[in-house]
Specification:
The complex is a heterodimer of chains A (957) and B (221). With 957 residues, chain A is mainly beta. Chain A has 8 helices and 53 strands. In chain A, a hairpin with a 6-residue loop joins strand 31 and strand 32. The longest helix of chain A is centred in the last third of the chain and has 15 residues. Helix content of chain B is 4%, strand content 47%. Classes of the chains: A mainly beta (957), B mainly beta (221). Chains A and B meet through helix 7, helix 8 and strand 42 of A and helix 1, strand 1, strand 3, strand 8 and strand 9 of B.
């Protein structure tokens, strides 16, 4: 049925002699005319290139038009032939996810030779209303950027990634985009999301030299893409191709990643020590690709090996790490219509003394093993160049294992209360594992009829997400940590054999692993409908679903896990219009509006699951060497309650099970819960609209202006309906707003020079930065995916008055700053996800003799921060006495520079020597202040990373 | 500057000046004279404020040398008297820009006449000014100083003068020997209105139980 529906729409005027296999592709379309401007029907169009097995062919229609779907990105040769005309060859560039219009003029026959034309490819895709930027491997090779796609995206207009807005310090690879935080982006590799299912930050890495291209959507992404509210990155990896190619490179770098000046003594406010980590990093990168059997079987492999020593200022020992990472892809063209590709990428990071810190003695450090792997099996069926069916199966995993550096798992930890330093082993060791497995099916078809031309795409996907975490304690009595206080007469000299002179000890017993699972699905239908040649409507709808479960632990009958915690259904329309104003593919006016949902993620299930992974007990020395248990905490506690019928019923039935006479109480509480919950718990979403105008003013150079507005609503929060019952509900007061005016200049790379410049005037406001709550980095507060403190102030006037009138006014004041609806403080303000003014200038120029100079510059006028007030009820700095985002960081400049020289030899062989300088002026502008309202308030917590260098040599063929 | 232009560019109606305005404490006696701190962003040197239209007094800014990061972010002031219940706070910059926070401050009814929260000092010498802070003071009231061991015998009696509305009253410490005394507030005719014995009253409630007000005369220096 689908076949008839999708493939029966157009006459089969396309011939195919080969399959263009690529995980991600772009389109070409065009029109063939004679020298008098008359269309040439039935002309034969053929596209060939190293990354195309054989060729892709089409025949022009009655109007001389042709369309070619799903071509590999990069440069290809397009040949147009027609009897009575000279054959014409054009070099064309296909860009990821874009559609380029190629005008072809055939000259009358008279000479037997072909005419070869270097196409002046349109810069602007006038069929798309989405705002996105493509970065290719060729471009990135000439620009000073870190060797990861996460670093490269910082060049994109509107991406705020130079600072970590979640944890503070320099960029973490998870930028804030369009007013959404580091949790709001999605990272696709070859069309499959690789995002961490728990933290929603980037997941599996991709070898930098395995990247062919990437398309970064900041606004208006089509319905094909889901599960994000900020930015979507779609990375395309390289293929083998029909020509052998490869490279070998060595890089020596001295980054000071982290580059932080961390206050160690927050009590005194003294900047007593810095925590700058300086690395010496060696990296070897190898790639090799080509045909095993030409036009039948390709391979591509990439191996990256890096070793780093990190020295932390004020620490006598170093962190040593070694990270091998590999990528392998095989592509098999089974028939001219059918191809299969299998790719696997993985990395392993082994770090010794991973927690090197001035407050951790080397004997108490831990070693860390991180490993991840992603695999994709792609099946592609292309009966012709106007339609394809693509089926993918994929699995991604991320694993973290922390073990004691000493290897002595029996040694108890000692905490020196006098110096604040930990000795003698680490107290607990984590094992984290996250999986994302599933598949997707996409059907694409170019069609004519129903009011114009259509590119119709339908897809569906389903993924199974898991995260689990286990604490592994060591030493006698499970996790035991002794405290020494020599000045108080408790030196704690040998706790392993005689702990009687220790001040106290804590004991933690590990519970079995806890975890959470989720099932997500997504289905979309989109159409790029062109009723007339100069007007395209991008119409689509996407529906995502999410079901989250806790993991039931059969060993503990009281374990509240295992239940379906939350189900979300997320219908998201996407509507856009792209108007080729001048009809020559050089001027675009576009409007795009859409809804963007993100899944809640496994941490959302963890939120309501208050089981921690350990039990805790404190034993204090009574002065005679005997220890008395003075405090114990059982980890299995009552969970929070979701505003779902099942969760509410389970909770209140549980009360009745324990106390059948509590019916009146339950009825009253249930009524309160129903009032708070309203229609139930809904997923949060962003509604965005973007209006843009772009004009190609010089060949390959376009300028543009765009306005962006977005609102994020339905953000959940835990709301107390009584002192001991909290429900997770959508709180209407919680919202985020982003608006921006952005000017861009883009000069497409032509092997000589490139430029991408932008100025973004923006503001990001809201009641809470995170999915739930988020600090602005580095101080107290929870991260964007976990429970926070918000709107816990007492908002009901009658209740407030009662407290004032009866002497409890101090309680109202104690909670003030957490967000009342009666004053601004803490309720609504600037979020740290923007700077009012952001300027980016990136570009490179290659001299005729092979020397390339590249620069990446960014000006950041400073993000919002604020004073955070102490809230006695929570014992932490959760309040906003001056209002959220009441202050702004100073302006910072980032200047990175690259110089490279390439020696070219015969047969496309070359040798390049390069030097990259990051933070050329060695600027040390503060990028984070201490926010808590104590003696340290306003002290510098983080500065820009110091100047660093990367030198490399790379041979290619 | 940009903040004025930006909303226009984006056809927005965002505010241009104050942000995060709040007042702490959020409550005080209806008699006024509560020391408050107004925080937020965008306060200039000419800033003023009002509660339900009555101006705040005693506006003071942080010392720029001691608290440079607080300049423009806070000022201290004294509340005017007001009606019991919630009131709106208005802040007005020197250039006329203003912001209003609804129900920002709650005026609490004075539970006694008078009700003393605390004395400005618990140590004095003859002639020092001692202030009683609370609410419900009125002209004609006196302070009687008695011995803690014998509150029935008045050792000295001095008139109270209203120092700030009916919320703060002060007196000049009389000549008395070195020692510790209890201050009782009377109606001027000998009836104790506020003093230690009321603490035993069962129906006054825990929160309005009078606190003993001690005044100690030192031994020299």
């Amino acid at each position: 049925m689908i076949d008839r529906l999708m493939f029966g729409l157009v006459p089969l005027i396309v011939l195919v002699s080969g399959v263009a296999e690529a995980a991600e592709t772009g389109d070409l379309r065009g029109q063939v005319e004679d020298q008098d401007g008359l269309p040439v029907p039935n002309a034969k169009i053929r596209v060939e290139g190293a990354s195309i097995a054989g060729s892709v062919e089409a025949v022009t229609d009655d109007e001389g038009r042709f369309s070619l779907l799903g071509l590999p990105t990069g440069r290809h040769t397009l040949t147009a032939e027609m009897g009575g005309f000279k054959a014409t060859q054009i070099t064309v560039t296909v860009r990821l996810d874009e559609s380029a219009f190629i005008p072809v003029v055939l000259a009358a026959a008279g000479a037997a030779v072909e005419i070869v034309v270097e196409a002046a490819l349109p810069v602007i895709d006038t069929t798309r209303s989405a705002i996105s930027t493509e970065l290719t491997a060729e471009q990135l090779a000439n620009l000073p950027t870190g060797r990861s796609y996460q670093d490269a995206v910082n060049m994109i207009p509107g991406v705020y990634g130079r600072v970590d807005t979640q944890d503070g310090g320099g960029g973490s690879g998870n930028p804030s985009v369009r007013g959404e935080g580091s949790y709001g982006n999605n990272y696709f590799v070859d069309g499959i999301s690789t995002r961490d299912p728990a933290t929603k930050t980037f997941g599996a890495n991709v070898n930098f030299d395995a990247i062919q291209s990437m398309q970064i959507y900041t606004d208006g992404a089509p319905a094909e893409f889901g599960e994000f509210t900020g930015m979507l990155v779609n990375v395309e990896t390289k293929d083998g191709g029909d020509e052998h190619h490869g490279s070998a490179a060595y890089y020596l770098s001295t980054p000071a990643t982290g580059g932080t000046y961390l206050l160690l003594d927050t009590e005194t406010g003294e900047e007593v020590a810095t925590d700058k980590r300086e690395f010496l990093n060696h990296e070897v990168s190898l790639t090799l690709g080509g045909p095993i059997v030409k036009e039948k079987l390709w391979y591509f492999g990439s191996l990256d090996l890096s070793a780093a020593d990190a020295v932390t200022e004020g620490v006598e020992y170093a962190t040593n790490s070694i990270t091998p990472a590999g990528f392998l892809k095989f592509t098999w063209f089974a028939t001219p219509d059918l191809s299969f590709a299998y790719q696997a990428g993985g990395d392993l990071s082994v770090s010794n003394n991973a927690n090197a810190d001035a407050l951790v003695d080397e004997s108490a450090t831990s070693d860390r093993r991180d490993w991840g792997m992603s695999q994709i099996l792609t099946t592609r069926y292309r009966p012709d160049a106007k339609g394809e069916v693509e089926f993918k199966l994929a699995t991604n995993t991320i694993n973290i294992d922390v073990v004691p550096a000493s290897g002595d798992e029996d040694a108890p930890q000692i905490f020196d209360a006098e110096t604040g330093i930990y000795y003698n082993n680490h107290s607990d060791f984590d094992y984290n594992s996250r999986w994302r497995s599933g598949g997707s099916l996409k059907v694409t078809r170019l069609a004519k009829g129903f009011g114009g031309e259509h590119k119709i795409k339908f897809g569906t996907e389903a993924f199974y997400l898991t995260e689990s975490r286990e604490l592994v304690f060591t030493g006698p009595g499970d996790g035991v940590s002794y405290t020494a206080a020599p000045d108080a007469g408790f030196p704690c000299t040998d706790p392993a054999t005689d702990p009687s002179d220790c001040l106290n000890y804590t004991e933690r017993t590990a519970n079995p692993a806890i975890g959470h699972t989720g099932i997500t699905t997504g289905t979309f239908l989109q159409d790029d409908w062109r009723p007339i040649e100069t007007l395209t409507f991008n119409v689509g709808v996407r529906v995502d679903t999410e079901s989250l479960y806790g993991t039931k632990n059969e060993d503990t009958p009281d374990d509240p896990g295992g239940e379906l915690a939350f189900t979300g259904i997320m219908p998201a329309p996407r509507l856009g219009m792209a108007w080729d104003v001048t009809g020559d593919s050089k001027t675009l006016f576009s409007v795009n509006a859409g809804r963007y949902y993100d899944i809640a993620g496994n941490d959302f299930a963890a939120w309501a699951d208050t089981r921690s992974s350990s039990n805790y007990a404190l034993y204090e020395n009574d002065g005679t060497g005997n220890f008395v248990n003075t405090y114990s905490q059982d980890s299995v506690q009552d969970p929070l309650v979701y505003c779902t019928e099942k969760s509410l019923n389970d909770y209140f039935n549980g009360i009745l099970d324990a106390d059948p006479t509590a019916q009146d109480y339950v009825d009253a509480e249930r009524a309160k819960a129903d009032k708070v919950c309203g229609d139930g718990l809904k997923p949060y979403h962003s509604d965005k609209i973007v209006v843009g105008f772009e004009r190609e003013v010089l060949p390959l150079l376009a300028v543009g202006i765009r306005g962006i507005y977005s609102e994020t609503k339905n953000i959940p929060e835990d709301v107390d309906i009584t002192l001991d019952t909290w429900v997770i509900a959508n709180v209407p007061e919680k919202e985020r707003v982003y608006r921006a005016l952005e000017f861009t200049l883009e000069r497409k790379y032509d092997e000589v020079w490139q430029a991408l410049a932008s100025y973004t005037l923006s503001e990001s406001l809201g009641t809470n930065p995170g999915q739930f709550e988020l600090a602005t980095g580095g101080s107290s507060g929870s991260n964007g995916n976990e429970v926070g403190v918000y709107l816990d102030d007492i908002n009901d006037l009658e209740t407030r008055a009662f407290f004032y009138d009866n002497g409890y006014g101090w309680l109202n004041d104690g909670l003030a700053g957490l967000g009342t609806v009666y004053d601004d403080a803490g309720y609504y303000g600037y979020l740290p996800y923007h700077s009012f003014h952001q300027v980016k200038v990136n570009g490179s120029y290659t001299m005729p003799w092979g020397t390339t100079a590249g620069v990446v510059y960014e000006f950041d006028s400073g993000h919002a921060w604020q004073k955070r007030g102490y809230v006695p009820l929570y014992g932490d700095y959760f309040g906003f006495p001056e209002g959220r985002g009441s202050r702004f960081m100073p302006a910072a400049h980032y200047v990175d520079f690259k110089i490279a020289h390439s020696l070219d030899f015969k047969n496309d062989r070359s040798l390049e020597v390069s030097v990259d300088l990051f933070n050329l002026p060695d600027a040390q502008t503060p990028i984070g202040y201490y926010e808590n309202d104590n003696e340290s308030f306003g002290k510098v917590l983080y500065r820009q990373s110091p100047r660093s260098l990367r030198a490399g040599v790379k041979g290619s063929f | 500057m940009w903040r004025s232009i930006f909303p226009v560019l984006l056809l927005s109606c965002g505010d241009a000046g104050f942000d995060g305005v709040s007042i702490r404490p959020t409550y005080g006696w209806a008699d006024g004279c509560t020391d408050v701190t107004v925080t937020g962003r965008g306060f200039d040197e000419g800033v003023g404020g009002a509660i339900d239209g009555a101006p705040l007094t005693g506006i003071a800014f942080p010392d720029p040398n001691e608290f440079p990061l607080d300049v423009g972010f806070k000022f201290t002031a004294v509340t005017p008297p007001g009606e019991v219940g919630f009131s709106d706070l208005e802040v007005i910059n020197g250039d006329g820009e203003s912001a209003t926070v609804k129900n920002a401050f709650y005026y609490v009814a004075c539970p006694g006449s008078p009700n003393v929260d605390y004395a400005s000092t618990d140590a004095a010498a003859s002639g020092d000014t001692v202030s009683l802070v609370g609410c419900g003071f009125s002209a004609g009231m006196t302070v009687e100083l008695v011995s803690p061991d014998d509150i029935a015998t008045t050792l000295a009696s001095v008139p109270l003068e209203l120092a700030c509305s009916t919320a703060i009253a002060s007196f000049a410490a009389p000549d008395l020997p070195v020692g510790t005394y209890v201050m009782l507030v009377t109606d001027g005719a000998g009836t104790v209105l506020y003093g230690a014995e009321l603490c035993d009253s069962a129906d006054t409630g825990y929160y309005y139980c009078d606190l003993p007000l001690y005044l100690t005369y030192g031994g020299g220096s």
